[in-house]
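Q: Start with the shorter request: fold the first protein.
A: Done. Sequence, then structure:
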Amino acid sequence: MNNMDVRKAARFLPVIVCAICLEAAVTSGAVFAALQPMVRLKDLATVEGVRDNQLVGMGLVVGLQGTGDKGRMANQMMANMTDQFGVVMDPRQLNSKNAAVVTVTCQLSPFLQPGQNTDVLVSTIGDAKSLEGGVLLQTPLKAANGEIYAVAQGPLTIGGWADSGAASSVKKNVVTVGRIPNGAIVERGVDMRYASNGTVNLLLRQSDFTTASRVATAINSKFGNVAHAVDGRMISVAIPPNYRNAPSAFVASIEGVQVRPDAAAKVVVNERTGTIVMGGNVTIGNTSVAHGSLMVKVTESPEISQPGPFSGGTTAAAPRTDVYAQENSPQLVELPTTSTVEDLTNAMNAVGASPRDLIAVLQAMGEAGALHGELVIQ
């Protein structure tokens, strides 16, 4: 395709890609290595068995200034609570807007022991307008197995405010959600078995066989032949004899091991927002990109026909259409075989292409086989 053909094609399509993959991009391992820094193993993997646990409960927030629930659920909970203290009340007789039914959630961190504290998040369930100034009454927090692991109580901290009058209201941030720092007391700990049978299993946050192999090699270079990659996610590490009585010290020592992770060449495109995220190791073949634009503007401006006096005619609208077309001169961008997606981005920006134009270019390159990497479209 010569330049004249490219110019003709550019009159009809905003972006046309003519890609001929002449040869595979040859890039040395040193170039790819420079794209990935050395990272601590602590930032690449987690220890199997060491995890958070979610707790949830349903409670009652009191002390609100008329911004509580209006429904029957809050009245029923207040009646149940007064009944526990020997005061029997009919829920229909309770008419208070100073209480709200809420859900209480928290993350039970690993190794928390009974008597220690953790933060809780409180959110309204009903139609309460604000939790400002409220106090959460004692609420048991349960895990998925139905057992109680913590109890929450205390005044709420709201990250906003709300004021209202007879005809208008104003508020800042969300006032129906609050936090209680250290508001939950742990009543039962969770046993974290991370060194069973003298083995510690490491789980990569991003599955990759090459990275798993590198992690095992880095650990073996420091502690001997104790680690092997089970698959692309798990690395099994045998605890050395001198660490058998102190597995936590061994985990702390391997967390500081430096590893250079590997990543597949990917280009992630979000067409809804026009966002493009490209890995540095993505390369493209020999490519020519023709970029041009055609703008067509159609305007309707009907004319009104007014009959003469005493003619007996009627007023009518005569249609009138104005068509305006403007074509910008197309620009041709040529990229060599060893170019990267960064080079393509810089070239397209130089000719004034928008992010959506670049998305169309990348999609066409993927179909033509000139994009050496995985194209992920969200």
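Q: Next, the second protein, separately.
A: Sequence, then structure:
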Amino acid sequence: MISGAQRVPPCHACTELEIEVVSIASQAPSVTDPTGPGRSLRDRWWVWTWAVVVVFGAVALWRSQQVDVPFRDPGGRVFMSRITLSFAILVALILLDGLVRAGRRGWSLGKVVTAIRSRWTIDRVALAVTGLLAYHLVYAFYRNLKSWNAFRTQYDDDLLEADRWMFFGNSPAVLLHDLFGRDVAPHVFRAIYESFSVMVPISFVAALVFAPRIREGYVFLTSAMWVWILGVGSYYLIPAIGPFHSAPEEFAGLDPTSVTATQAKYMAERAELLLDPGAADTFASIGAFASLHTGFTFLVLLMLRYYGFRRAANLMVIYLVAVMVSTIYLGWHFVLDDVAGLAIAWAAVRLGRLTVHPPGRVTR
């Protein structure tokens, strides 16, 4: 996967991330972890990723005690269903990788098995499985912290006023409605917005599978964890629900979609939590500032550049813009939410790199 980085222009024209890609590609072989079986586990570079999980979990536990609401996983959709999906994707991508590698020398079942066994040592399997566990623990902590943010004062009116000030008294959502229309466009932007739920689990699992070194796959995985950590921090910095709630009249003329139903569902769930925090499975899923749809999408773009896939990154720019427009058009986010989401992704990549490759430590 990283071998594609060899097509990057000379370093005098490279960005910082591209220079890192050239360095990685020049050192890493294309099949197995250069450190050999067991070496990555003995080097213990992965301990720093788990340190992030432990610290973030302690923060979540403190907040749980503060609001007197236990950790919840309603219907298993926060942790159990997501980690099961990730493991299924992991197995599917490992099989796909084995088929591709075996097919280079003429396909057969024996060659597929050999290709998979040579690449997926016990070391790599253990790191992939525990890495996914770490990621989903962070995500579960994030979702519970996000839910408990409902108890705090919301600042939608301030964000709404800021949006209109930036657009000279106009609502950016209404401007987009006038530009794209209100009949067909809601369904198009709904599809773009909801495609996020497919892109996210495939992206970080693919990094673990296709990165020549599992450690470089952890850069993506740990950066993704930082997106959720920084993102929930932004929720607490400026609690907000979203334009669809603070200015519902602006979205009343849109053709109804599944997003409309989801927004109503989320508001009902939030009301139930506020009414009876002790009730089982009450859970709030609303948080506007910052937009982590934008943040995670930008993270994927940055990681594509990190791994040397410049053409895919260029296409990702188009998808990123479409996601940002959809968040505003559908009323999920204010403009400032999207700007903050970009900043969070930028910071998350750097924190992910520092976590997996701590300064002052030699990387094999």
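Q: Describe the second briefly.
A: Residues 1-38 have pLDDT under 50 and may be disordered. The radius of gyration is 22 Å.
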